Amino acid sequence: MFRRLTVFIVLFCTLGCSNRSIRETGLITRQAMVVSAHPLASAVGTKVLKRGGNAVDAAVAVQFALAVVYPDAGNIGGGGFLVFRQKDGHIDALDYREKAPAAAHRNMYLDERGEVIEELSLKGHLAAGVPGTVDGMVVAHKKYGSLPWAELVQPAVLLAANGFPLTKKEAKKLNEERKDFLKYNTRRPEFILKDHWKEGDTIRMKELAFALTQIRDRGRSGFYEGAVADSIVAEMKRGGGLISHQDLASYQSVWRKPITAHVGEYRIISMPPPSSGGIALVQLLTISSGYPLGEWGYKTVKTTHLMIEAERRVYADRAVHLGDPDFHKVPVEGLLDTSYIKGRMTNFTPGKATDSDDVSAGTPAPPESPNTTHYSIVDVQGNAVSVTTTLNSSFGSKVFVAGAGFLLNNEMDDFSVKPGAPNSYRLVGGEANAIAPGKRMLSSMTPTILEKNGKLYMVVGSMGGSTIITTVYQIILNVIAHGMPMQGAVNAGRFHHQWRPDWVLSEWGALGFGTGLRLWLMGHKIAPYVNGTIGRASGILVLPDGRLEGGADPRGDDASAGF
Length: 563
Ligand code: DON
Hints:
Layout: H1 2-14, E1 28-29, E2 33-36, H2 39-50, H3 55-69, E3 79-85, E4 91-96, H4 133-144, H5 149-162, E5 164-165, H6 168-184, E6 202-203, H7 206-218, H8 221-224, H9 226-239, H10 245-250, E7 254-256, E8 259-263, E9 266-270, H11 277-289, H12 293-296, H13 301-321, H14 332-336, H15 338-343, E10 373-378, E11 384-390, E12 448-452, E13 455-463, H16 467-480, H17 486-491, E14 495-496, E15 504-506, H18 513-521, E16 526-528, E17 536-542, E18 548-552, E19 559-562
Parallel strand pairs: 15-16
Antiparallel strand pairs: 1-18, 2-10, 2-19, 3-4, 3-11, 4-7, 5-6, 8-9, 9-12, 10-11, 12-13, 13-17, 14-15, 17-18
Helix pairs in contact: 1-18, 2-3, 3-4, 3-5, 5-7, 11-13, 11-16
The structure holds 6-diazenyl-5-OXO-L-norleucine.
């Protein structure tokens, strides 16, 4: 019986072809492009670029627009990471990740027997970390922006005040969330004023328009002080949350040195800790570069097996070594060392799946000194911005700040709430990612920029929790090893392995029947991905003649726009 069920599951994941073509070419433009999760946000960013704004100006405008039109993940109550490459090759990375409030403590989600209290780190007021988005945008704009701040926030103010039509997918999601919105809110949020939303309904958000107006007119203080801050703290008091005025006033984003590595003719530029994304991506691409994956072919048993085994080992390192560098010494150099990375594959067997129990984190050299939505933008001058921003789960903690109309994140669940206890992405962790006041929770977000032979080549990133890293990895390989266009690479089916649980999770048809079956016979445990689709990515590829190709994810309402 069990065997039959397994065969059924394997067939489900591997049979059937996705109807998205891996040879599809996306929108091509000559000068500039924005790819984001929503057509209205992409349009807002494009308008900024047309007016002469640079990629950072456009990023600020897109971030605020997404907070209105894509409230699942676009936000002002969450956080994110921004990776920047200037046209002259200068690079930078901004960490505006949320932080644990000062009153947070290691065991705050455990009962008196030390067991994890279900959903406490995921839903409701206690799940929220101190938001970083508004500070992040202000800080990015101060350093690199060129247009006046108010002009960049204004499109979002108008979208919230005047309303915008819901897409079919958004209407469906709002209806699905209704129960949670009612359950976790102390006041009725604007999203549930209607019983049943349908495609084309106009949604207006007066309270959110007010909060955005404060931010437009007062910058950082419009959010971390004054009426909006008062609303956040009042919301926390009503719902038993922890964020205080002091937490808000002291929040600061941090400029960090991007993770960089050369892999063949490419240079990877990505996010350092507290994201695990950049390090894990470099490890995956470095391992892959040791094998002729292009020759082996896309979706073949050999290629897929190698990729799964690389993912298994890289996620084992993630679980043990990675956390907020301001609190935990992350052995960055050791983890990025090419011989260390290649050494991780010594127990790789070409014809057989490794058991995750036989894989543990490696021992990289210690540091020498102490030390979820994505949008991609390229402007007319050739500056590039890669941003992944999130509330964590869809609609975050489900808690709206009454009076200010925005959703709070549930990023606290990205901490390891108890050593070895899996979080909502089934990721396990330990000391490096334990909760501490003011600490940032470990992330998988992987906003990335690639250079080829010293020139801007690709801007890419994705949503998807733990699957973000594997999504970005597979998209890059699809282009550099298998020669797909940007759109085809984003369309292509995805699979995911994260060491524990020891499963290869697959989108419908992503493995292909022959490959899936043979992988299963080699000992890989294969299962369909619970959410159906893995990741939702936005990419821009610079073509040999300098034109730009967009890759907008057909898994969502994503759109490329530009000129
Ligand atoms: O930072 C992280 O890794 C997660 N909070 C990202 C969440 C995400 O991608 C949501 N999408 N499923």
